[in-house]
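Input record (one chain):
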Amino acid sequence: MQSFQLIIDGKSVAGDEASFEIRNPATFEPLGLAPTSSLAQVNAAVAAAKAAQPAWAALPDATRKDYLNKVADVLTSNTEYLAKWITQEQGKPLAGPGSMFEMQACVGWTQVPASLDLPVEVVFEDDTRRDELHRKPIGVVGAIAPWNWPLLIAIWQIVPSLRVGNTVVLKPSEYTPLGTLEMVRLIAAVLPPGVLNTIGGDGKVGDFLVRHKDVQKIMFTGSTRTGKRIIEASANNLARLTLELGGNDAAIVLPGAKPAEIAEGLFWGAFINMGQTCACAKRLYVHESIYEEMVQALKAVAEKMTMGDGMQDGVVLGPIQNKMQFDKVSELVEDAKSHGARIVTGGKAVGGNGYFYPITLVADIADGSRLVAEEQFGPVLPIIKYRDVADAIAKANALDAALGASVWSSDASEAMRVAQQLEAGTVWINQHGAIHPMVPFGGIKGSGQGVEFGMEGLKALTVPQVISIKK
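The corresponding structure, as predicted from the sequence alone:
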């Protein structure tokens, strides 16, 4: 079985500690052995990044752009190879909004930051003085990527960091490290040594990274619980933080909406990547006047979708990625059943090899039920009936999770009125989860702090320096 390696200071190295096996969640077949780093190896990766950072930051802007465009070329030429790793390791199919889609997004989210500039801003000027705001790199960025979009979110962390002159030490998720390590191996080959490094292992290794005295910025996508631990750990080095944490996004369908027209958009807003996306719609509030029509329209869409091993043609839905998440989804559905909720589709694990759980629509469920209040992060959608729009807004805002939300309506002005009352980092109208590399994205409340993407995302990876000039 292939043993995968880390990249430290431009060299491929094995992990210092015992490796661990990664299996395909659709077949349970072994894929390879992933490396685990020791504390000494984490120290070496950070030291390599720290040593490389001044020269990387000193390069002309145009030169760093050229390097990142070379990274985009490498991703383009290896799209199919890396997409197969994503499917085998994470589970999402090659087709549809799956692994090929993820790789195409990796290219886009590399090219766009490479094209952006952060010019000097004149923040004040009069006859006596001129004050300029300059953006400086922070230093070493410690990045911890998740398992749901393992390559894309790693790119979100790596590329903007490098664009503004930082260097990076990346820890992939221990659930999906192989494809990410392969991607870094390929793109690091066109970067100067030490600019991009990897470490491997579980949360203990991540803790080594976030506590390191020479890590000045931490980027993390994952659970709110882990995010809180990172905030505590970062007190050791006063590292700046960008945390994209758990979501339990509410979607509100207003009276007068046309269920047949919005059902497919709602379906993919809830079930892209089998619902294993922080910004999926995870609670659906539907007005009583169109409630059953909406339930049946979603059922009709769900019944057309094929589920299976994503390496096979025609499959658009894959397995849940890991047993922990599979068990949580199963538990929450069983709890909903025990409290009288109606299972419209699915509701029971498929059985056999693979962590397959069918698309499950749960109707006639009370707000406050575990399936509504807890982020399921899987292929299950609770559908809650409401009578008063103000009550639906209050219920949507009641949870601490506040990453995204959406409003679905045929009345644009009413949709905007509702959207402005929702507490979320992003509110979509007649769509859900639509992101763009130029549009800032991030959560509020328990869903994190800071933003990624676009100009605001680049600024978050710099420190401001004011130069004040006396005339």
